[in-house]
Amino acid sequence: MQQPDKAEEYLETVRQQIRWKRARHIVVEEIRAHLEDQKEAYLKGGNSEEEATIRAIAEMGDPVTVGEQLDRVHRPRPDWALLAITAALLLFGLLVPAATGGLVSGGLFGESWFFNQAVYVGISIPVMLAAYFMDFTILGKYPKMTLVSFYVIFLICYFLTNGPFAGYRTCAITDLLVLFPTVFAGFVYGMRGRSYDGLILCMAAVLISALIALIMPDLTILFFLFVSCFIILTGAVLKGWFRVGKKAAIGILILPFGCVMAAAGLILYGGNGIRRFQYIMNPGLAPDSYGYLGNQLQQILWHSKPIGAGMSSTGIDPCLISGYMTDMKTNFLLTYITYRFGWIVLLVILGLLLAFLIRAGILCKKQKSVLGFLTCLAVLLTLALQCFIYIVPNFGILLFHPLSLPLISFGGQFLMINMFLIGLLLSVFRTGELAAEKAITEKAGSKHFIHYQNGQIIISLK
Q1: CB–CB of 404/418 below 8 Å?
Q2: What's the CA gap between 277 and 282, in Å, rounded?
């Protein structure tokens, strides 16, 4: 009994040196495993159990020194680069209305733009901090319940938006669907280790969301959901987290995803889909009909300067270049910024967004935790696709209806959602290495989502 007490005393001394409470248990268990391995080696070398324990402890070194070294290694550190870029993008979101006269009554867009944006930023910062200090592993502990809860909340919001209480709408359902890839990442984590049944259940979750997008109907959201979830699932398959043949699984993913997107295009665009697509890609072919807005946006960019306000032109709608249209501060803010302040300002904004995505992608690739990697990938895809879907229409190619330019374009709900996702991303980078994979596996992977028992179909949400 004496020697195990010495080992526990050693481990307790190490534990006391580690200030981050969440790291203590994981680090101590890791040291315990090293002690046991070293002890087994000495036992095989002919030492008694007492001698093996003493020598194993001596081999590990002074417990205070070991604990202090581990404390320096296992300490939560925010990624200051991402925080700095986030702050810069938020600042741009405030500088634009200020520079266009939004600080005073009667400004170009009115004082409400700057004031409302400032209020949204003030609210979104605590939201980001809450997500930053949140335990992101809850997505892996209760993946099925989280997914079902998401659908329930969405249906409630849809009912409030389109039902008898539509006048008292509490949220925009389009904004809410932006969170789906992150919820879906937790569900994929819960299905890992399973065969084709797990893959099919993941696809079913995506198809339910696709059905929601078609009911709305919103081809942009459908594209957003399919691309993000397809990449998440493909990444999980390629990393071997499903017990499936990789080539066969990728084929299974491509077929339904492609068919639904093609069918959605036919449903939403009808028989003139090919012609309308041509007008979208080249709006100059129909400048007075389908290509009117796209052509106007391209003309505005064409008459923009490197620095300063762009040149006037009789071929541009004055309502567009003056910025009085609401869409100019929401859907086409980049076009307006380019015309009002010049191409260099646009390149600075795009450079900041690109720097954020590259930095986040590098950190995401380094994640060793399965759940941490999936969560990072989902958030990264959500932000990247928002940028893509927003930037393309601002260059006059109206293939999509813009959602939001993260942290810059006007809109409180999108800003809070994106700040929440950024906080969650930073939380993974801060604590992802400590994700207790074994503990989560026991909760998330011990039961099948749908199984049969005594002739009954049982759906497990735990």
Answers
A1: yes
A2: 8
pLDDT at position 74: 61
Question: Backbone dihedral region of 225: left (phi > 0), alpha (psi from -120 to 50 degrees) or beta?
Answer: alpha
Task: Output the six-digit token pair for 70.
Answer: 């581990």
Please give the structure tokens belonging to residue 27. Answer: 């680090």
165-204 as b/e: b if 16+ CB within 10 A: eeeeeebbbbbbbbbbbbbbbbbbbbbbebeebbbebbbe
Instruction: Compute CA distances 419 → 128, 171, 333, 449, whole Å.
Output: 5, 16, 19, 31
First CA to last CA distance, the chain: 40
Check whether 324 has a pLDDT greater than 60.
no
Joined together, the tokens standing for residue 286 give 């129909």
Higher pLDDT, 321 or 220: 220
CA separation for the pair 409, 104 (Å, rounded): 20
Its pTM stands at 0.78
Average pLDDT over residues 184-202: 90
pLDDT of residue 192: 86
Question: Is 461 a residue whose pLDDT tops 70?
Answer: no
- Residue 453 phi/psi, 5° resolution? -155, 120
At which residue do the structure tokens 């002890």 appear? 39
Report the C-alpha gap between 325 and 438 in whole angstroms. 54
Average pLDDT over residues 445-457: 45
Residue where the block lists tokens 């209480």:
165
